[in-house]
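Q: How do we represent a protein-ligand complex in a form that can be generated token by token?
A: Start from the inputs.
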Amino acid sequence: MHYSYQNLELYLVPLRTDNYSYVIHDRAKNKTLVIDPSETEALITFLNQHKFGLDLIIDTHHHNDHTEGNIGLQKTFDSAIVCSDYDHEKNRIPGKVRQTLRDGDTLAFSDYNFQVYSTPGHTLGHICLLLEGANWLFCGDTLFALGCGRLFEGDPTTMWDSFKKLRALPDDSLVFCGHEYTLANARFAEEIMPQIPGLHAYVESQKKRQATEGRTVPSRLADEKTFNPFFLADSPIMSRLGSNPEEIFGAIRKQKDNFQ
Ligand SMILES: [Fe+2]
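Then emit the structure tokens for the protein with fe (ii) ion bound:
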């Protein structure tokens, strides 16, 4: 269950019911980071099994299921913690934060760089990170495969602006999101836009992945741009739902909130 780019190995670590934590290890420099540590013990076990230390912890946002491992991992490995400046100012990131990030920043890790995007909506301090070259996109609870995070702090206009930012990223980006929600999202996508060519076949392919691999993450950003209803708020396909993309985005989110 891992991906490679140059000297980097990326491991998906499924935790809790449906969370993913992501571990990236640089073989050449023996440096390791984790994105969104959902738990402490399971990640310590994983890191020990691989004989990795842990240099860096990145939190996409402050929710407990993305940060619970911060304190235990920092204590065990003396890891640096980085998060958004907003979440740090609000004092809602557990552990000692070493560096804060804002939109447009670059975060260096070993010989590689992450581009940082502020993507408020799910929470106001949420950030997404794109690993340059590999085009691995870590989007926490902003973008899910075929879905988006609930609007706990932002409003539809805020989240739509965040989605437009993500839509501008390269098509070949791989979407490493915070939860495995794809098949539930797929049912909603087929319900709200049954007329999209190729959607049904795409959903079937994801069901097959789930059955054979036990997961559907990552997806390709190109497929999200085509089939994720929330990226289509300004498409004629959704125009029946409102008079502007912001209103339409809000209407899609509301329907999803009530979808059984
Ligand atoms: Fe969250």
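The chain has nine helices and 15 strands. Residues 199-213 form the longest helix (15 residues).
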